[in-house]
Amino acid sequence: MPTDKHLIDPFDQPEAEAAGEASAGASGESGREDGSSASGQEGGRDASGAGPAPGDDASGASGRQVHGDASGAVSPGKAPTRRTTAATRPGGTLRASETLRWLWTQLTSMRTALVLLFALALGAIPGSLLPQRPTSPVRVREFLTNNPQLGGFYDAIGLFDVYASPWFAAIYLLLFVSLVGCIIPRIGVYLRGLRAQPPRTPRNLGRLPAHLDFAGAATPVLLDQAETLLRKRRFRVRRLPDSVSAERGYVRELGNLVFHVSLVFLLCGVAWGALFGYKGTVALVEGQSFSNTLTQFDDFTSGGAFRASQLVPFTVKLDSFEAKFETGPVQRGAARVFKANTTTTMDGVSRQQTLEVNQPLVVGDSTVHLVGHGYAVDVTVKGADGKVAFEGPVILLPQDGNFLSVGVVKAPYARPDRLAFEALFLPTAVDSANGGTSVFPDALNPLLLLNAWHGAPKEATGVPENVYSLDTTGLTQYTKDGKPLRFTLAPGEVFDLPGGGSITFHDWKRWVSLQVGSTPGLWLVFGSVLVAVAGLCLSLFVRPRRVWVKVSGDRVEVAGLDRTEGRGGLDDELVLISDGLGLAPAPAAGAGSVASEPDAAEPPAGTTGGGTADDEGKS
Amino acid sequence: MAAYWSNLAMVTSVVVYLLALSAFAAEWAAARRLEPERALPAGVLVGSDGAVMGVEGPEGDVPSGAADDVTGPQRGASERVASGGGSAEGASSEAGSSDARDLKARLQVDLFGRMGLALIIIAWALHLTGVVCRGIAAQRFPWGNMYEFVTAALLFVVTIYLVLACRGMRWLGLPVSLLVVIGQGLAVTVLYVAVAPLVPALHSVWFVIHIVAAAVAGAAFNVGGLLSILYLMKIRAVRREKVRGYLAKLPSPQRLDELAYKFHAFAFPLWTFAIAAGSVWAEYAWGRFWGWDPKETWSLVTWVVYAGYLHARATAGWRGKRAAIVAIVGLVCFWFNFVGINLLTSGLHSYAGI
After folding, report:
1. Can you tell me the distance from the alpha carbon of A170 to that of B304, in angstroms, rounded to the nearest whole number?
2. Does B350 have pLDDT greater than 80?
3. Amino acid A565: pLDDT
4. Which residue among A115, A475, B119, B309 has the highest number of C-beta atoms inside a 10 angstrom radius?
5. What is the average per-residue pLDDT within B92-104?
6. Taken in order B299, B302, B308, B313, is the CA torsion positive or negative?
7. Where does the pLDDT of residue A312 fall: very low under 50, low under 70, confident under 90, or very high at 90 and above?
């Protein structure tokens, strides 16, 4: 395990001189080891936080280290006790409580969090590359048929439903446990440090990265002035006998904590929605209506805590559905307009509303989304006895982008023989003599291609049947010249079957697929995401800074230290402060000691440097 | 008509970007001839041999950050002439003549750099015209398909670069122009689709919010990724003590790392917001805020990898090189999410139109 010296935030050393040494070390390391300045200065993210200042010293510092990056597991404060217990027992043994504690520190360490993050990223990938049961069950079945062995293996480890699989849940739950375990102690530290004073002034300010020295500039009121000035610049100020110590940027750790806590709330919101929510789909042909009851859905899923009584009673009638497609040369056939005109009735009040893709209906606590559409054919089937055996629209399922649609017309009550037809609908038909195909999604040349079956009436068993496919057991296909009989109908045409009976194709209609659902925790989900983004911005853009003004004899020193890397503008701010204090602009020895880097470049994001007073405001 | 001008401007911009790339390449090829130790930034010298610094002349005296300033060659050189008697007092007359040769070479190098910058500004103006005309032709914001998204996002990349170049980071010109030439080149050749209105699923105010956030975040991720790659190249060169040519002109590894971090730190919240905005939109359009659509999954993967990057930078043993590698993995995820998912898988985000 690499040394953890970087993790000890040099700025939280208990003693002033230690702070001076350590910070000088952190600033002067430039070429010693890459990233080591980051180690000291990026303390806000792990080891330190804007926690209590050295004022409350050892406990704070060591405590922070434990739940910061606990890769070191043993903090300096705890190390001695650990060592003594180890000495009284044979090496390598831990008591159960110690083992648990060790496990807990491991789990809540940054290193583990990092590993879990990568595990989450890796774990999410197969779900995007393999077909998933919830979204494409058909392709899963195809995969299993084509690759029985591999598919079986995949299935066994849950790769066809990754996001509901136990191992995926294990990753994110562990991640959240780790997060909570890391965040809770840090919240405590943060709260205790809320009113903490800035640290004592280091003895040797000259070793700080930015330092100005003014000989003979001291006035009796200088420190009072400095205090006022720094407060005006929104520093938290601590007055010491011969110096003023100031710090700002405490919000950074707050933002950090808010972000992580919001993630927990986000997970709660998602869980809430998943437990109490429901989602159902229903297909409606123009003119049909739907009531929000369990039996009317074609497809329904709900969370474990959902009760059918939660369904708000309302009806939606699809008055008409308008679909327009691109007719120009570019992207011909692409969808341009989908507009469903609906009448919603709830508590006896009817409202006419337009339902569009990005404009769901909101009824009670449920929303109605437009998720699909297709063609239905309005047909009448008469049996050989001349009686109407079936009448109404039949929903056909689109098979391609040009809405070649297939389905089945069933007339089980036709007598003497029951009748059934396999239907192929071509909205813009070409080449219908050879099977035909559709070349445009709109119904410009609608044709219905059918073949017909007949058979003895079936016993009513009550077993549900798939309305979109035909079970041909007990049925015989009509033939013509030894070949299956196929015939083509345009709207308004009738075909008389060879064995008596007929089918009339009155017209085509459109149907829409509506998704009705309710996700109760939605406000919590989006609220926590919003708060999380805000917290994230604070934690990334607020850059804590410390400034000291020290008087020794008639000499005045102004020094500063950024607690995060890449802040920029520290020198400018020091100059502004010393100007504000009326200190001579040409200091004797210190001019060259402004050693922090010139603010060569800043991304458009963060503070634009310049060290203006509104730095924190901008962040 | 606007579509015609858009296409013309876009194709021309590719050509001019290519010229800019050549100029930047020439700049760095010419920089190879410079004596390596002269070009070595101070920060590196401290690491390898602190003693060199004292006699190294003006450049050695300036703190490491000054090496960022790549208008530097000229300024450094003129400073050298001006202060020739000052810090490098003991320099002999033959050293002076080699200085003059060096100065000439440096001015030549700088000339190429300036040409590159001028060309990239022209190309950017053409690019901007192309994107704006595309919007006018389509009567909407021009990021409705892959072609439009690439051109818009790359416009953001170049805009970021121009801002940076004004702040002394002209040295990023080579990788940026390389990225843009490849991206724009593919856009106008492979990804091109003619102007067309949007499908109903995109008729939403979130079309603006979600996609702009994604494009700007993507642009910043790309710039940050380039910086991370440069960082890795630089620390490798520093470790082998072979810092020459282009790499010598780059700032110290530490500074590169910091810059890369700044871009990632800027892009990450924006990317978070883009995902969040996308999920709000998905709730409106598809009735669920998260459905593990391949695009959604990969934006989460990208997000998680970049979250890993931010955490890695705060974890012992992960700083520096490893963190930079994580950032590059994040960028690869971003690209895969854009190219791979759009073209290879079938999901709800299939707007490539090709």
Report:
1. 16
2. no
3. 65
4. B309
5. 67
6. negative
7. confident
Q: Give φ, ψ of A15 to 5 degrees.
A: -100, 150
Q: So what's the pLDDT on residue A111?
A: 86
CB contact under 8 A, A34 and B289: no
Domain boundaries, chain B: 2-86+94-344
Tell me the CATH number of domain A205-257+528-618, given options 1.10.10, 3.40.50, 2.60.98, 3.30.310: 3.30.310
Distances (CA, A) of A343 to A58, A513, A592, B50, B173: 69, 16, 78, 82, 59
Structure tokens belonging to residue A545? 């800074």
Residue A88 has pLDDT above 80, yes or no: no
- CB–CB contact B297 A124 (8 Å): yes
Q: Where do the CATH 3.30.310 domains begin and end in chain A?
A: 205-257+528-618
For residue B349, list chain A residues with Cβ-Cβ distance below 8 A: none
| List of residues 6+ apart from A552 with CB closer than 8 A | A242
Amino acid at residue number A470: L
Residue A170: CB partners within 8 Å, gap ≥ 6?
none
Residue (of B41, B28, B31, B23) closest to B106 by Cα position: B31
Q: What's the pLDDT tens digit per position in A109-149?
A: 888 888 999 999 999 999 888 889 888 888 899 999 999 99
- B91 to chain A, minimum CA–CA distance in Å? 24
Tell me the whole-structure pTM to 2 decimals.
0.79
The Cα of A457 is separated from the nearest Cα of chain B by a number of Å equal to 43
- Taking phi over 0 as left and psi of -120 to 50 as alpha, with beta for the rest, A553 belongs to left
**Cα of A185 vs its chain's centroid, Å:** 26
Tokens of A613: 């007073």
Binned at pLDDT 50, 70 and 90, residue A499 comes out as: confident
Return mean pLDDT, chain B: 81
Torsion of CA A110, A111, A114, A115, to 10 degrees: -140
pLDDT at A592: 41
Which residue of A lies nearest to B165 if distances are taken between CA atoms?
A: A601
CA separation for the pair A108, A70 (Å, rounded): 7
CA–centroid distance for A207 within its chain: 45
C-alpha B88: how far from its chain's center?
37
